[in-house]
Specification:
Layout: E1 2-9, E2 18-21, E3 25-30, H1 36-49, E4 83-90, E5 95-105, E6 110-120, E7 123-130, E8 140-147, E9 154-161, E10 164-168, H2 172-188, E11 193-195, E12 204-205, H3 223-233, H4 237-249, E13 254-259, E14 262-269, E15 274-277, H5 283-300, E16 307-311, H6 319-336, E17 341-345, H7 349-361, E18 369-376, E19 385-390, H8 408-425
Parallel strand pairs: 3-17, 3-18, 11-16, 16-17
Antiparallel strand pairs: 1-2, 1-4, 4-5, 5-6, 6-7, 7-8, 8-9, 9-10, 12-14, 13-14, 14-15, 18-19
């Protein structure tokens, strides 16, 4: 099964319950401060809460990044009200969904679980509701359980590990069903591949690359590790694929120089006709290198995460290269088929335009793309929608579009023409 949707309520900047459908390629857009990164990084937080040995309900450092300074920062306006997060996984006809509702416990400075619900194909499997608020911080507490669609409640003792119950006394079958569901969620959300908006510079690898590395790191700091491991112990095709992309898309030839198992990436400087270390090139090369490695490593199977996340893949790149990155990600999504959910947060109009163009050309299916517009407002007179799911038709046209997003250039052009006309009218 693969992740198919995210759920949340009273979470960070979002008050109302929301369901975010995950397409093979999910593009997140919105203004600064709207909450784009919160949604983009939510699979990391869920993954941390599904870890088999989770002592806490949530891990604020899940995925190697900081999701918040304090647990109550996760709650809308830091209120004392409960908040929820959850997810769905699917293999097509079959669907599993869980939602865990928590409340911040001041005495332990951490959330406690107030309610848990598990559904299969839309039908309730189990609902647990805490009966004694004073047990909110306890490792084992008394919950009222509703099994299936039966509204009858039975009191059971429940222990949680992370977001899921681990023991449910009194019903061995339900306990087994929940354990099986948890294992499927763990497998679906295991170790998402995440690249943040600020990537590490890639210089020389100062130690022999580790074997079987499957994680780039949130700053892409282990991208060279993956390349060097494949070069040293594999078939070297990942390096060849990355080099081919740079030559075709960035007009730069890459090669890996190795000595006694140590390695560094070199870029050929055509102006000086010599090879230089990647860290000595412009920021754009260093920033895009982990993005390219992530995509091609997932495409070739060097990475096997079912969720691949990248924030601002276009960072520090000339606008002309934004479309090349979009093509790279689209080709990765196409090659992986239903095995991956790519989540891309972007500020690039060129990135989205290239995706729309490929849809219109028929080389990338419209059904494989969803755009999540955060803080969406289609017109000045319309209310702001916290989250709007935008679909794209077969001609590449979206069914809605937010004002103030990617239309600045058009507005400036209108004002420029108006100013020029005004000056002409004044005889200037």
């Amino acid at each position: 099964m693969i992740p198919s949707a995210l759920h949340f309520s009273r979470f960070r900047a979002f008050l109302e319950p929301a369901r975010i459908e995950l397409a093979p390629l999910t593009i997140v857009i919105g203004k600064n401060g709207s909450g784009k990164s919160v949604l983009t990084r939510l699979p990391l937080l869920i993954s941390g809460g599904l870890w088999p040995t989770s002592d806490s309900v949530l891990d604020l450092s899940a995925g190697g990044i900081s999701h918040a300074s304090r647990y109550d920062d996760l709650i809308y306006q830091r209120s004392s009200q409960p908040f929820s997060i959850g997810a769905e996984i699917s293999d097509g006809p079959n669907n599993l969904q869980f939602v865990t509702t928590m409340r911040y416990v001041l005495e332990i400075h951490a959330p406690g679980i107030e309610e848990f619900e598990l559904r299969r194909d839309g039908n309730r499997v189990l609902r647990l509701r805490l009966t004694q608020p004073e047990q909110l911080a306890a490792r084992t507490a008394t919950f009222a359980a509703q099994r299936g669609e039966d509204e009858t409640e039975a009191l059971v003792q429940v222990s949680f590990s992370g977001l899921f119950p681990t023991t449910i006394d009194g019903d061995a079958q339900i306990a087994a069903d929940v354990s099986s569901a948890r294992a499927m969620f763990e497998a679906s959300f295991k170790a998402p591949s995440y690249l943040g908006p600020f990537r590490s510079e890639q210089g020389a690898l100062l130690q022999v690359p580790r074997q079987g590395i499957r994680d780039l790191g949130p700053r892409g700091e282990r991208a060279l590790d993956i390349i060097a491991d494949d070069w040293l112990r594999g078939d070297g095709q990942l390096l060849a694929a990355v080099g081919d992309w740079f030559e075709a898309s960035m007009n730069a030839r890459l090669k890996l120089e190795g000595l006694n198992g140590l390695a560094r990436i070199l870029v050929h400087d055509s102006a000086r006709d010599l090879d230089v270390d990647l860290s000595e090139t412009g920021a754009g090369f260093a920033q895009v290198f982990p993005v390219v490695v992530q995509a091609l490593a997932r495409k070739r199977g060097n990475l096997n995460a079912k969720v691949v996340i990248v924030e601002q893949p276009e960072l520090h790149l000339h606008p002309g290269a934004h479309g090349e990155i979009a093509d790279l990600i689209c080709s990765t999504v196409s090659a992986c088929g239903t095995d991956v959910r790519y989540i891309c947060e972007t500020h690039s109009e060129q990135f989205i335009t290239r995706v729309r163009r490929r849809i219109a050309e028929g080389t990338f299916p419209a059904s494989s793309v969803r755009i999540v517009s955060v803080g969406h407002q289609a017109a000045v007179e319309d209310p702001v929608e916290p989250v709007r799911m935008i679909a794209i038709d077969e001609s590449g046209a979206p069914d809605s579009w937010p004002i103030g997003v990617f239309d600045e250039a058009f507005n400036d052009l209108v004002e420029m023409r108006k100013a020029a006309q005004d000056r002409a009218d004044d005889g200037l």
